[in-house]
Design goal:
This protein is of the alpha/beta class. It contains 11 helices and 10 strands. A 6-stranded parallel beta sheet has the order 5-6-7-8-9-10. 49% of the residues are buried.
Length: 381
């Protein structure tokens, strides 16, 4: 099996990593106004240098900052856009927060953040450029930059978008694409060649209950895959030359909790045939993600990659190499082995508090991804 020429790598990861206790405590204090911004930045810098070495030591070639500067994987980014603000949690009919207790490992209910568009969306300053530069300056491997998908700004429907700012929603969609194009261009100018868009909306359409939340927002769920594809394509069409863009389909990930279940069948055809990204990070850590049959829509002869998220970041049990290899073989019935890669199903800390697993388990799981990749493909790259 040939060695990957570049990202995504045979052994990859979604991006966020468990915060060390010192950083987690400082972040908590900073949210309460009890830890200064300059001191927090200095601590983050030190911890990020350490987590870069950590990723290198387990054998990864895609290196992130562990999302150590963020409170959550998406809110920090979105709230730095002029005109956007967080408004609380999404509600889904039938529960307080939209998710049954059965959908969590903690017994707590979990619902994703909601945002409101209160003015014209504008990208008035770089968001992740300096963070990317810091990682790039501290590793000889490939610095990977994660950010929330542009589709995250479509939550809530017409009611979440100011009619004064956007009497015509087509202008709103155009502005979403533009602010993301600006960010990608600035990242490209800084040397970034590997970007991952974290997207919950495609995965939510796979869950009948959550799909209905789109209908209550005034959308036709059957039309949403195409709408999402068009928005993402309008963003990546102008990406810098040589920049690889992947999309991670997230089913919710907060303190070990999750939101969506259901196979990829409702979105697979549009996702694989119409979304113009280079790689798809798919959650496949347990039965709630369904089987590999939707991978049949992966275009024959494509150079794209499917990154199989077979290793759980929610449960502490370490997956066996034999089970992982059998599952890779099962996926290879639909997608050629040379188009497949391996990763954890999601990040280990989509919020700064992290999932309820020990750091030692995180390390063994990342090492397991690298070990299996080397045995299956002959390399983790």
């Amino acid at each position: 099996m040939g060695v990957s020429a570049g990202p995504p790598f045979r052994a990859d990861h979604v991006g966020s990593l468990l915060r060390v206790p010192e950083l987690r405590a400082a972040h908590e204090k900073s949210l309460q106004g009890r830890f200064g911004a300059e001191a927090l930045r200095e601590l983050q810098d030190r911890c990020i240098r350490e987590v870069i070495r950590y990723q290198e030591s387990v054998g990864l070639h895609a290196i992130t900052d562990g999302e150590y500067r963020r409170s959550s994987f998406h809110a920090d980014f979105i709230e730095k856009l002029d005109g956007a603000k967080a408004t609380g949690r999404l509600a889904v009919e039938g529960t307080v927060s939209g998710v049954d207790e059965k959908r969590t490992v903690t017994g707590k209910r979990f619902a994703p953040r909601a945002f409101a568009i209160v003015g014209k969306l504008r990208h008035s300053r770089p968001i992740e450029v300096e963070n990317f530069k810091f990682v790039e300056a501290n590793t000889q491997r490939t610095a990977k930059q994660t950010m929330p998908s542009p589709t995250m700004l479509l939550r809530g429907g017409r009611a979440a978008v100011s009619s004064d700012a956007y009497p015509d929603l087509q202008e709103f969609y155009a502005d979403i694409a533009e602010v993301y194009r600006v960010e990608l261009r600035q990242l490209g100018e800084a040397g970034c060649r590997y970007v991952q868009l974290d997207d919950t909306n495609f995965a939510f359409l796979c869950d009948p209950k959550l799909a209905e939340s789109f209908r209550r927002d005034g959308y036709d769920p059957d039309e949403m895959p195409g709408r999402f594809a068009n928005l993402i394509n309008s963003v990546v069409a102008g990406r810098p030359a040589g920049m690889v863009v992947g999309i991670h389909l997230c089913r919710g990930n907060s303190a070990g909790q999750w939101a969506a279940q259901g196979g990829y069948e409702p979105v697979a055809e549009v996702l694989f045939e119409s979304v113009a990204v280079d790689a798809y990070f798919l959650e496949y850590d347990d039965e709630r993600s369904g089987g590999f049959e939707p991978l049949r829509f992966f275009p024959k002869g494509s150079q794209k990659r499917i990154v199989l998220g077979l290793v759980s970041t929610k449960a502490s049990a370490l997956e066996s190499k034999d089970v992982l290899k059998r599952r890779i073989d099962a996926a290879a019935r639909y997608v050629p082995l040379e188009n497949l890669c391996l990763s954890p199903q999601c990040g280990f800390a989509s919020t700064f508090r992290g999932n309820p697993i020990p750091e030692a388990v995180q390390r063994r799981k990342l090492e397991r991804v690298v070990e299996v990749a080397e045995e299956v493909w002959g390399s983790a790259r």
